[in-house]
Amino acid sequence: MVWDPKDPWSRKSDPLEDALKQAQSQFKNLMPTFGNLLPSTGFRNIALLGLIIFLAWQCVFIVAPDEEGVVKRFGAPVRTVEPGPHLKIPLAESVLQPKVQKLHRVEVGFRTERQGRQQMLAQEALMLTGDMNILAIQFIVQYKIKDSSNYLFNVADVNETISKAAEASMREVVGKGKIDEALTTGKAQIQQDTQVLLQALLDQYEGGIQVAAVQLQDVSPPEAVAAAFKDVTNAKEDREKLINQSQSYRNDILPKAQGEAAQVVNQAKGNAQARVDRAQGEANRFVATLKEYNQAKDIITKRIYIETMEEILPNIEKIIIDGKTADRMLPYLPLDRIKAKPGATVEGQNP
After folding, report:
1. The Cα angle at residue 209 between residues 206 and 213, in degrees rounded to 5
2. How many Å apart are CA 169 and CA 201, to the nearest integer?
3. Residue 341 and which of 103, 139, 236, 307 are 20 to 30 A apart at CA?
């Protein structure tokens, strides 16, 4: 082995180093003019400044007021940030900013075209009720994002998942009820039950979704039997109208009758109380008179006789004759004249 003073250990040169040196020399040979135009120190400063600007641009991000930032590090979510300016690791971290305040909409049973027309999808809209009837139901689901991380990474196609889950929930709710409820008074209850059931399903999926509302757009029978259902609906509406009219008449008549009855009862009670009070007064007066009569029978008897005569005599035709004169004359009673003048009174006095 030959000793080399530059390599006391007599090691061979590294092939990788040789390749790098060769590449550097070739790069210098390819760009001789650029090196002459720009000094090496200035080039380094500009490159360093550009690198600093690039890193600053990659480090800072701003989340809008209606958004929420989800920071990913090498593709995996690591944290969630609120609206405002924030920092991230350049190149290693990226940010997704879903709009958490926006009210999203999913159509089920129909689709709205660009021209604004709505096209029914029979496969989604036709549903079976509990009494074995078929209805075409079109509705929309409105939702918000309540957990950005779950919304972005737990469900592949959010709108499709919500559409299928909403359709299944609506079928279950409609299948428990009757067709009359879905067409008339049960729509509000159907919407509420569907919303509760849909929210439970989405929570099981951990989709990070909050269902804001389920709104029925159209509930109608299939076209083949639409005319017959319309006649039935009109008949039911007429029945409800007549029932409401009769109840209105009843509500108008009953209070009047009850008021008149109460008035008659009160008058009867008043008359009864008045008669009772009058009878009690007469009884009390009779008892008082009886008490006085027992104390002075002769005087009271004479007084009663006089008072009775005072009440009777003014109302009859009478002839008063002195007792001695009556013994010497023949009594004569002109009955025919009494009949002719029943109210006349003839009085005779002693000569």
Report:
1. 135
2. 9
3. 307
CA angle at 238 for the pair 232 and 241, rounded to the nearest 5°: 145
CA distances from 293 to 186, 303, 306 (A): 86, 10, 15
Task: For residue 90, give every residue at least 6 positions away whose Cβ sits within 8 Å of its Cβ, in sequence order, or none.
Answer: 54, 55, 58, 59
Domain ranges of the chain: 104-220, 223-313, 316-351
Question: For the chain, what percent of residues have pLDDT higher than 70?
Answer: 78
How many alpha carbons lie under 13 Å from residue 189 in its C-beta half-sphere? 12
Q: First and final CA of the chain: distance in angstroms?
A: 206
- Closest listed residue to residue 170, CA positions, set 189, 142, 198: 198
Q: How far apart are CA 129 and CA 219, in angstroms?
A: 12
Q: Give the Å distances, CA to CA, from 291 to 166, 285, 294.
A: 98, 10, 5
- The domain 104-220 is classified under which CATH number: 3.40.1010.10, 3.30.70.270, 3.30.479.30, 3.40.50.620? 3.30.479.30
Residue 211: closest CA among 152, 154, 151, 156: 151
Please tell me the distance from the alpha carbon of residue 137 to that of residue 174, in angstroms, as a whole number: 10
Identify whether the C-beta of residue 130 lies closer than 8 Å to the C-beta of residue 176: yes
**168-193 per-position pLDDT tens digit:** 999 999 999 988 888 888 899 999 99
- Element of type H or E holding 283: helix 226-295
Please enumerate in sequence order all residues whose Cβ is within 8 A of that of 286, keeping only pairs 6 or more positions apart, or say none: none
**CA-CA distance, 154 to 95, in Å (whole number)?**
17
Tokens read off for 311? 């009440």
Residue 5 DSSP class? T
194-216 pLDDT, tens digit each: 999 999 999 999 989 999 999 99
